[in-house]
Amino acid sequence: MAELTKKEVQKQQDFNDEIIPHLDALYNFGLRLTSDPNDAEDLVQDTIVKAYRFFSSYEKGTNAKAWLFRILKNSYINNYRKKSKKPQEVDYDEVATFYETIRAERTETSDLEDKMFRELIDDDISNALDEIPEDFRTVVLLCDVEDFTYEEIANMLDVPIGTIRSRLHRGRNLLKAQLMDYATKRGYTHD
After folding, report:
1. Domain count of the chain?
2. Which residue among 40, 60, 90, 114 is least enclosed by CB atoms within 10 Å?
3. How far is residue 8's CA from residue 135's CA, in Å, rounded to a whole number?
4. How many whole angstroms separate alpha carbon 64 and alpha carbon 62?
5. Residues 80 and 137 both lie in one domain
6. How far apart are CA 55 and CA 144, in angstroms?
7. Domain check: are 30 and 78 in the same one?
8. Is residue 44 part of a domain?
9. Could you give the CA distance from residue 85 to residue 58 in angstroms, rounded to a whole number?
10. In this protein, which residues make up the domain named RNA polymerase sigma-70 region (predicted)?
11. What is the CATH number of the domain that holds 95?
12. Residue 48: alpha-carbon gap to chain centroid
């Protein structure tokens, strides 16, 4: 097995220092986009592979998190396009396993991560977010959940800053409308 050169070792160290601290945020954003922990993990893995492959194009000391989020978002869009063009497939083994699970009435999950996620965001709130069109949901999540600036979001999504402001305003209004029923059910009143 060949030893790594000093340049390769330095690249790995720089990558670890700049990129690895953002894995949790990447996963959370991937989970919000995909709504599936396995798909989110795959998306993050794909993002990390691409980030390492193109790390030479990253300017050290700049906003690594924004750079990673842009890669993740582009990967998500590319995967979505591929899936939308592909006919729907059914895996017999998955269906059979699922059927056996339902039949045995053992559908309760023990996945701690899933339980924690459900406790953090109530189903009604999560559903309200899911009801917002993707362009608006993405901007709301990046701004209000991940705390990116308008400029960072504009760079990540490669759209003008005015579009970001517009999508954020409209996304928040759509979310507000979705949550009005939720608030009323829980006893909150609108003044």
Report:
1. 2
2. 90
3. 38
4. 6
5. no
6. 28
7. yes
8. yes
9. 32
10. 22-85
11. 1.10.1740.10
12. 14
> Are 131 and 88 found together in one domain?
no
Span 140-187, pLDDT tens digits:
888 888 888 998 888 888 889 999 999 999 999 998 888 887 777 777
Domain end: 109, 138, 154, which one?
109
8-12, 90-94, 121-125, 169-173 — most confident range: 169-173
Specify the amino acid at residue 80: Y
Statement to judge: residues 70 and 134 lie in one domain: no
Cα separation, 148 vs 8, in Å, equals 31
* pLDDT for residue 50: 93
61 and 140 assigned to the same domain? no
Q: Answer with the one of 73, 89, 109 that is the final residue of a domain.
A: 109
Concatenating the DSSP letter of every residue in the chain gives: -PPPPHHHHHHHHHHHHHTGGGHHHHHHHHHHHHS-HHHHHHHHHHHHHHHHHTGGGS-TTS-HHHHHHHHHHHHHHHHHHHHHHSPP---HHHHHHHHHHHHTT------HHHHHHHHHS-HHHHHHHHHS-HHHHHHHIIIIIT---HHHHHHHHTS-HHHHHHHHHHHHHHHHHHHHHHHHHTT----
CB 63 within 8 A of CB 152: yes
The pLDDT value recorded for residue 105 is 47
118-148 pLDDT, tens digit each? 454 566 777 788 888 988 988 988 888 888 8
Reading the block at residue 138, the tokens are 């993405």
